[in-house]
Design a protein that fits this description.
By secondary structure, the protein is α/β, with parallel strands linked by helices. Helices cover 24% and strands 31% of the residues. The strands form 3 sheets. A 7-stranded mixed beta sheet has the order 2-1-3-4-12-11-10, with helices on both faces. A 3-stranded mixed beta sheet has the order 5-6-9. A two-stranded antiparallel sheet has the order 7-8. A hairpin with a 2-residue loop joins strand 11 and strand 12. The protein is globular. The chain binds glutamine (GLN). The site of glutamine has 11 residues, from helix 4.
Length: 188
């Protein structure tokens, strides 16, 4: 099992640490050729505009779209925005997940927060402690995309479409490995 992490901007190092804790072989992806032989890919949090622009510059857009058709891909926060079909503004998006997102939906950096979520599909004991940093909301899921988790007020913060996952929050910033384990099961 070898999982890549898109490593052009954002908190890719934290995802690598998490994957190593789970005993998985990892690869920092900066060039299209690095996708060869991977079982799955994580797109980290950061700035979705920067991740998008650099992906265009590095010739990654089409290789990432092709990879997403057959493999597990998980976007956290900015990564979720990058996977979406619609971010309600003009910026480079992979457009592989049938979700509409609203960027910075909770306000500015100082409005970052943590919340305990129920995520039935991810399983395990207890609530899932989630960290939101200038996070997007998944406003709507379309086609075969499904809601994985909502905040108590009903807003969608995690979605799945086949082997594609989008989370508004950052499991790589906690010590809870359940979400990464769930992703590895999809990548198998
Ligand atoms: N606000 C960032 C964006 O819109 C996402 C923040 C994050 O990834 N923590 O791209």
């Amino acid at each position: 099992m070898k999982i890549g992490v898109l490593a052009i901007q954002g908190d890719f190092a934290e995802h690598i640490v998490m994957l190593k804790r789970l005993g998985v072989e990892t690869c920092e992806v900066r060039l299209p050729t690095a996708l060869n032989g991977l079982n799955g890919l994580i797109i980290p949090g950061g700035e979705s505009t920067t991740i998008g622009k650099l992906s265009v510059d590095f010739g990654l857009m089409e290789p990432l779209r092709t990879f997403s058709q057959e493999h597990a891909v998980w976007g956290t926060c900015a990564g979720a925005i990058f996977l979406s079909k619609d971010a309600r503004r003009n910026q480079p998006l992979l457009g592989v997940m049938d979700i509409t997102v609203v960027r910075n939906a909770f306000g500015r950096q100082v409005d970052s927060f943590e919340a305990d979520l129920t995520i039935d599909e991810v399983g395990g004991e207890g609530l899932y402690h989630a960290v939101f940093i200038r996070a997007p909301i998944i406003e709507a899921v379309q086609a075969s995309a499904r809601v994985l988790s909502r905040l108590p007020d009903g807003r969608i913060v995690a979605a799945r479409q086949g082997k594609l996952l989008a989370t508004s929050f950052h499991p790589e910033l906690t010590r809870d490995t359940r979400f990464h384990e769930f992703f590895l099961a999809l990548a198998k």
